Amino acid sequence: MVKISAVSYLNTLPFIYGIENSGFLNSSEYTLSREMPSDCAKKLENNEADLILVPIAAIANLSNINIVSDYCIGACRNVLSVLLFAQKPISELENIYLDYQSRTSVTLIKILAKHFLKKEFNWLKAEPGYEKNIEGNTGGVIIGDRALELLNSYQYKLDLATAWNDLTGLPFVFACWVSSSKLDKNFIAKFNNSLKWGIENINNINPNYSSLSNEFIRNYFKNNIEYHFDYKKINGMNLFFKYMKTL
């Protein structure tokens, strides 16, 4: 039995759609579960799944993992769903809440603060509901579906993928598929084909999301998320690992 674990955000829906509808899961040898990014990272650390879509900060210092798939969750420019929100210009902020759902975005904003914004902030640990405390000289990093829902709720915002691209000229990888053990080549081929099938059939996905239109979501899939794990994204990921060491 191969246990597969994926982040449960809108941006992974083409992956989920492909895994569940391409015929891949017809085999009783595979199971799929969905969690938030920080829980996927814990599953990797605790060997609770065989193949995991994991935020890249979780693999920076691991030597016994294999990047499995030709696909990832990345962005070449505006990602829309990983943002620093504020009610004042970013240059006037003193405090920043750090989203509790993803260590990668937390690490990224710290890198950007040091090397791009060139400003020191007080980093605040966020708890559920912290979005209501983003006011005055306090901003907050918000990721995933909540960021998409709140796009028009704050006067100022910084797209972290855009800032990374301005700093480095490279795309950013938020998550990739990894395994702590060597998986069968036939399985990997079938798995890659299921992800490819999901991406190719984005127009057939009906998210039925209560606060976002299907048209908005499909545009987000096509124009903001980059799913192919190409050499530029690999270079961007490796540079991120180097920047992590400067913190």
Write a structural description.
With 247 residues, this protein is an alpha/beta fold. It folds into two domains: 2-76 and 171-244, Periplasmic binding protein-like II (D-Maltodextrin-Binding Protein, domain 2, 3-Layer(aba) Sandwich); 82-168, Periplasmic binding protein-like II (D-Maltodextrin-Binding Protein, domain 2, 3-Layer(aba) Sandwich), CATH 3.40.190. It is 36% helix and 25% strand. It contains eight helices and eleven strands. A six-stranded mixed sheet has the order 2-1-3-10-4-11. Strands 7-6-8-5-9 form a five-stranded mixed sheet.
Summary, kept brief:
It contains eight helices and eleven strands.
Unreliable spans are: none
Q: Profile the largest sheet.
A: 6 strands, mixed
Indicate the CATH topology of the largest domain.
Answer: D-Maltodextrin-Binding Protein, domain 2
CATH class of the largest domain, anyone? Alpha Beta
Tell me the number of structural domains: 2
Short descriptors:
25% strand, 6-stranded mixed β-sheet, 2 domains, alpha/beta, D-Maltodextrin-Binding Protein, domain 2, 247 residues, 5-stranded mixed β-sheet
